[in-house]
Write a structure and sequence with these properties.
Glutaredoxin, 24% strand, alpha/beta, 111 residues, 34% helix, single chain, 4 helices
């Protein structure tokens, strides 16, 4: 899995545009939470998508909480941690959190 780091709130506009051609996964991760670490490791171990299928973005929400807040506002999704948000065509196709996060489930929502 080749994460791209989300570190600027302005990048959200580019991700929305990108999602019109390639689905985008936003993974909101708390670096202080063991549940979040387990969800991240599980997702990484199950990941079997190419960058042409899904572009995965990683958000350290402790460092970049303002970006996490903006994601909630733009996409009207309640903040959770850990959280996976799948974007396609500029819209939230799917979102989930905690132990419900899985690569298989994300893949099922692409079709």
């Amino acid at each position: 899995m080749n994460w791209k780091n989300l570190v600027e709130v302005e990048e959200l506009d580019r991700l929305i545009i990108l999602s019109n051609t390639t689905p985008v996964l936003l993974f909101k991760h708390s670096t202080r939470c063991s549940v979040s670490l387990m969800a991240k490791r599980s997702l990484e171990s199950e990941w079997n998508f190419s960058a042409e299928q899904i572009v995965p973005y990683y958000l350290d929400l402790i460092t970049y909480r303002s970006i996490s807040n903006r994601i909630s506002e733009v996409f009207n999704v309640t903040h959770e941690s850990p959280q996976a948000i799948l974007l396609k065509n500029g819209k939230v196709l799917y979102h989930t959190s905690h132990s419900e996060i899985s690569a298989e489930d994300i893949g099922n929502h692409l079709n």
